[in-house]
Amino acid sequence: MKVKKVPMRTCVACNQSSPKRDLLRVVRCPDGSMVVDLKGKVSGRGAYLCRTRECIELGIKNRRLERALEHPVEPELLQTLLEATHVN
Question: Does domain 9-87 fall into CATH 3.30.1230.10?
Fold first, then answer.
């Protein structure tokens, strides 16, 4: 029986590789809006963050998330990201 390959992604804040399901995906949609993609299926440019408060704040503070998404991050997104960390 074949072993299924686990997709790995890198956190833009801490540069640690983790399984895709363990990270939060933030997506810049084609219309310019930004959403937190909990299912990993939203189309658009995506960036991954660890599900820790430190990585989320570091990614926003050091503008790493902005650079990865090539778009300024709205302040409301921080609150959405912090709420998403408590979901899972």
Answer: yes
